[in-house]
Amino acid sequence: MSHIDILKSQLQDNPPRITVDEAVEIYENANLNDLMHVASIARKRIVPGNEVTYLVDRNINYTNACTINCQFCSFYRPPDHEEAYTQNFEQISARVSELEQIGGSRILMQGGVNPELKLDWYTDLISKLRTTHPTIDLDCFSPIEIEGIAEVCDLSTSEVLLKLKNAGMHGLPGGGAEMLVDSVRMDISPKKGSADNWLRVMREAQEIGLTTSATNVIGFGESRADRILHMDRIRSAQDNAIASGNIGFTSFISWPVQLENNAFGARNKGDNRIRLGASSTEYLRHVAVSRIFFDNIIHIQASWPTMGLEIAQLALTGGADDAGSTMMEENVVSASGTSKTMASEIELQKIILRSGFSPRKRDSDYVLIETEIISNTDLYAITPEQ
Predict the structure, then answer these.
(1) pLDDT > 60? residue 335
(2) What is the tally of structural domains in the chain?
(3) The domain containing residue 72 runs over which residues?
(4) Does residue 176 lie within any of the structural domains?
(5) Is residue 289 one of the residues assigned to a domain?
(6) What are the residues facing 362 on neighbouring strands?
(7) Which member of 58, 164, 357, 375 has the greatest number of CB atoms within 10 A?
(8) Taking residues 218-244, what's their average pLDDT?
């Protein structure tokens, strides 16, 4: 079928599942406005109503010591580097307390693969945070961090996950997926492990009831077909999770790779403005295709830290139904040159209202929270740059 016929088929009340080949066809050839229109219809079908959600949370990057050496990462330092750090409980708890003061509900705590940290360090930290901050969901680490802990402690990843959950961990975020196409992974992060490993650890987390999300980084020079293959692996994993009676991934979040201050950008310097990364229109195309493709993942999140609030606002009209989170603090993406690393609750409400939706605060599980919405006067006031 042509891209026009494929998009028309997706306008039905109960459209057929789009195939990998069909997804590549519309990604490659469909008009962006048409893609965003069909994606907005899919969004209304999958997430009925006029609300767009957002989360008040904080990112905490507890260590930058790492042995994986991903070429696109500007954040990590070798464990023996003078700039390597690991935060202690008191430092982390102080940051969580600041989140509590503004009514936040979740921390996203991730770092490097630090071989100096044993499992007891992680379980003690989680247990203390759970006791000290009982109202805050602890969504922590990533599959590669879990693999690193398991290797240091000579345990299976499933054993590590269960111990962390028993200590009080609420969820395992989907960081480190990047591209679930091994030819791409071996080029950008050969030490990070296979796509199968990432999917296995996420499945193990879902099987014990941890909240999980799926992510995607684009712009490594991969083809659009590679991007669809990434989505297909996640969609298949979600099918299996649902068939097993699990919730699976709560959401899908994608963003472009940042090319500043890292080995990947330096090695491909001549391509930085030509082939690598992703333009605003390419990102909007990706979000729209992901909404049409994922008939089994409810939420599609707009990424403002890499694309900016204005492009995230456009993404809300082209398939995304979630505006992400306030973050309060971010050190990984910002190390690659992104200047804006936090957004106020008012800023997120503004882009939601300006896109024609009603803002609604949520928690990490997408449970809706009572929300005080800004006035129309505040809506059009200029927000100072932070």
Answers:
(1) no
(2) 1
(3) 3-378
(4) yes
(5) yes
(6) 55, 368
(7) 164
(8) 96
Cα–Cα distance between 338 and 340 in angstroms, integer? 6
The predicted-structure confidence for 8-63, as pLDDT tens digits, reads as follows 999 999 999 999 999 999 999 999 999 999 999 999 999 999 999 999 999 999 88
CATH code of 358's domain: 3.20.20.70
**Over residues 110-118, mean pLDDT:** 83
Residue 384 lies in a domain: no
Could you give the C-alpha distances from 309 to 32, 312, 316, 349, 381, in angstroms and in order?
A: 19, 5, 11, 11, 15
**Counting every residue, how long is the chain?**
386
Q: What is the mean pLDDT of residues 73-93?
A: 79
Q: Which pLDDT score, from 0 to 100, does residue 176 have?
A: 86
User: Helices (DSSP H) in the chain: which residue ranges?
Assistant: 3-9, 20-29, 32-46, 89-101, 119-132, 143-153, 157-167, 182-188, 195-207, 224-243, 263-267, 280-293, 304-307, 309-316, 345-354, 376-379
The pTM of the full predicted model, rounded to 2 decimals, is 0.89
DSSP state of 271: G
Residue 94 CA, distance from chain mean position: 25
